[in-house]
Amino acid sequence: MPRRLLATALVLPTVLLAGCTDDPAARQPGDPVTAEEAEVLAGLLADTAESGGADLVATAPFGEDGLLTLTGEVDLAGGTGRARAVTAYGGEQPDDVRTVFFTADTVWFGDLAGLPAALSAEGLPDVPFVRRPLATGSEEVPLTDVLVRVVLNLGATGTDDAAAFTAGGHTWEGQRSIDGQLATVYASDAGWSVAVDDGSGLLLQYATPLPGQEEDVTVTLADHGPRTIALPEEDQTVDAVAHPAVAAAVGV
């Protein structure tokens, strides 16, 4: 199993290169990846990060009808992102809409209903953001944090071992169109699948099941290129760890 997958248990990708087989027409979904494709897989996360970043739409289902959607952009080279986070509960309860900024160790929340009142009750200045550490671990991690970690794990600073992809369990699954882009799809017997833009060779979509979920978490990347994401300033942020009453009041 590739080093990056061992570290995250979440992802790994691909692209079909011209000339990978002598007779592409004879290939069937489920066929093992070729040695040349394995080389592409090994460098895909690093290549995607090297491009800078991308626009993103990430979705994570929960419960019977709930859905969390992050829509924004990510700087994979710098490990930062920002998004509009919409939690839809699928019933009469209204959607929860927030602004989210994130890094590999911190998440900021803005546009929080009740934040001014919660700050006033604690005698704190009126600021637009609440900051807390990004949750880690395998139990009771907020879904927002899980989705943030999945997104940031789609970039890497180094390549994986290509031999890990030819050792078995990694398959070619054909081609399909995603948002008008022709992509080649690969899958792992670990459960994840990826689609890679046939034109750019960069990661277009990644999907993986989470424990206890029947549907996949899905991240779609578009318009790859450099991104500059300015994180909230310190004087515009209240620390949730230092002020737990505020954090509890606004649900972060």
TrEMBL record:
Leader sequence segment: 1-18
Domain of life per record: Bacteria
UniProt KW Signal keyword: yes
Record keywords: Signal
Organism: Geodermatophilus telluris
PROSITE patterns membership: PROKAR_LIPOPROTEIN
Protein name (Swiss-Prot/TrEMBL): Lipoprotein
